[in-house]
Amino acid sequence: MKLFAGQFNPIAGQLDLNIQKHIELIELAVKQGADLVFFSELSITGYQLTLADQFASTLNDECFDCFQKLSDECNVIIGIGVPLKSITLISSAANLDDKNTIGMIFFQPNKHRQSYSKQMIHSSEMPFFKQGSAQLYIHEHNEVLVPGICYESLQSSHSECAIKNGMTVYLASVAKDEEGYQRGIEHYSNLAKCSNVIVLMANSYGQCEGFDSCGLSAVWNKQGDRVAQLGNADDGLVGIDTVSCENFVIKVKR
User: Fold this and answer.
1) Is the Cβ–Cβ distance between 201 and 172 less than 8 Å?
2) Nearest to 29 by CA among 202, 214, 199
3) How far apart are alpha carbons 56 and 242 in whole angstroms?
4) Where are the alpha helices (DSSP H) in the chain?
5) How confident is the model at residue 254 (pLDDT cuts 50, 70, 90)?
6) In this structure, is the dihedral angle defined by the CA atoms of residues 66, 104, 43 and 92, taken in order, positive or negative?
7) Which of 55, 73, 172, 226 is most enclosed, with most CB atoms within 10 A?
8) CATH number at residue 145
């Protein structure tokens, strides 16, 4: 499989603009023969905790139909980051004290959409979100693709559980500043090398709520080597072919 992590600067609350940036990078990935492209934590809204309630979406929100159309027409799996409304919030028995989740929606060609909600949330996120309760596994082309969202992707217990269930590729969707990124470098390298898996990390760059994310989206091969990386402020893609091990760095000219 050809797998890509997309990087750009999500603008807080500008859903239409952010969706268009997603589409541009997806179309670029498709030109490279992509089987999957995914994006950073809360890539649709930007990492803005206080805006989560305002922009929380459902799995089948019509504003995301464009991604399903692209997935179907281009035969590509697409993963986007979005605050997700919890089931109880959209049911007739809504609980006013309930919270949304930090989620991802995955679009697969001619299949129903699937969602994943971050199971291990940082203390700073607890006032705004609740934890998810189940891991998503995507089985495709003899690979088992597993998403991990930011904080939990640095917790060994999260990846260890996925490894026991056959994970071959770890998709880390993050919003990390330089300090967090430095912690991630060693962790992702050790995870890849010790568990014989490929790790792709999609980070954003630019202003988040309370910090600046630093970009540097990257790929680690099964030997734990960081074989491809974008810069601090690049719009583009970083990727790997899981069969040939060829790696890719594709920057968008601005």
Assistant:
1) yes
2) 202
3) 34
4) 15-31, 52-55, 65-74, 156-164, 178-195
5) confident
6) positive
7) 172
8) 3.60.110.10
Q: Contact 222/192 with Cβ under 8 angstroms? A: yes
Q: Mean pLDDT for the chain? A: 94
Give me the amino acid identity at 239: G
Render pLDDT for 56-113 as a digit per residue (tens, 0 to 9).
999 999 999 999 999 999 999 999 999 999 755 445 455 545 789 999 999 999 999 9
Helices 65-74 and 15-31: crossing angle in degrees, nearest 10, is: 10
Angle (CA) 62 234 253, round 5°: 90
Residue 128: other Cβ atoms inside 10 A: 18
How far is residue 238's CA from residue 153's CA, in Å, rounded to a whole number? 18
Taking the C-alpha atoms of residue 45 and residue 172, their distance in angstroms, rounded to an integer, is: 18
Structural domain span for residue 57: 2-251
Give the C-alpha separation, 60 to 57, whole Å: 8
Whether 60 and 32 have beta carbons less than 8 Å apart is answered as: no
Report the Cα–Cα distance between both ends of the chain, in Å, rounded. 29
Give the whole-angstrom CA distance, residue 199 versus residue 187: 10
Task: Output phi, psi for 90, to 5 deg.
Answer: -110, 10
CB atoms within 10 A of CB 96: 6
Domain total of the chain: 1
**Token code pair at residue 204:** 């954003």
